[in-house]
Amino acid sequence: MRVEMEFLGSGTSSGIPTIGCDCRVCHSDNPRNKRLRSSVLFRVNAGESERRLLVDVTPDVRIQALRAGLSSVDAVLITHAHADHFHGLDDLRGLYWGGGREPLNLFAFPETLDSLKQTFSYLFDENYEYKGIAKFTSHTFEHDAFEAAGLSVQPIPVIHGRMRVAGFRVGDCAYITDTNEVPPASIEKLQGVKLLILDALRKAPHPTHMSLPKALHTAEQIGCERVFFTHINHDLEHEAINKELPDWASLGFDMLKVALEEDGTITITEPGHTGAPPPIAF
To answer: Is residue 78 a contact partner of residue 175, using CB atoms and an 8 Å limit?
Structure first.
């Protein structure tokens, strides 16, 4: 099974550049310092059998889907109910239409789903008459693996301040955003993961996110072969920080694709080398 993770966004909740900020990263000309809100797309296998799992629906999802050439998904996985991770839910109407107007399967922790239904009540109201919206079939999970689009997905519970957040493992690939602590039981669920995307907000400690040093330590605990960091703020300049990291660790960036091939090798595809649509300016 080939599993690819595409960075739809790699930035923190404010996005980079941040409104009103005059720092050098926010004013950088390097496209790798321009970060939409964090989201990832799992592409499992390829061709006609490809399955697409969208993790989180950011306020930037329209731009993210357009520049990824995305017209349909097989499932939507929500990590938690913070605005930067689900406030783009209404914009999934295009993926609903592209999927033949079949309800989108959406998976979340029970408390996360409750928050989604409060914020976007009309999207989950079976009696809502307006036709120009997305429709969803809701599913909840706890600690056990669940099936999404015919794939086994292992939720990885992590701590984000006082909130429970879901990471996700598909095969030997895993995605974990918005955490300041990965509990021992979740470290155990991550054993054998070869390719990891992990929260690393900044160098300095933070009460609800991992610092870069803590994220490196966590990746070492998991024992992954390769880690890419996400949910990055404007304290981390892409090129400078990457020079400081070990060769098995890197900052992620928007539109980067990392894959675990069927033979166990890890491949990295950068924007501009895939024949995909060009980046959309923002």
So the answer is: no
Q: How far lies 152's CA from each of 29, 79, 146, 200, in Å?
A: 40, 17, 6, 26
Q: What's the angle, vertex CA 120, arms to CA 130 and CA 152, rounded to 5?
A: 105
Q: What's the pLDDT at 195?
A: 98
Does pTM top 0.85 for this prediction?
A: yes
Q: Which fold has domain 3-269?
A: Metallo-beta-lactamase; Chain A (3.60.15)
Q: Report the distance separating Cα 229 and Cα 76, nearest Å.
A: 21
User: b/e per residue, 152-191, with b = 16+ CB within 10 A?
Assistant: ebbbbbbbbeebebbbbbbbbbbbbbbbbebeeebeebbe
Residue 182 token pair: 């990965």
What integer pLDDT is reported at residue 98 of this predicted model? 86
Question: Which two tokens mark 63?
Answer: 């731009």
Please tell me the distance from the alpha carbon of residue 271 to that of residue 58, in angstroms, as a whole number: 20
- Alpha-carbon gap, residue 52 to 108, rounded angstroms: 16
Q: Which residue positions in the chain have pLDDT lower than 50?
A: 274-278, 282
Helices (H), the chain: 61-68, 83-86, 93-98, 110-119, 184-189, 212-222, 238-244
Q: What is the pLDDT of residue 282?
A: 46
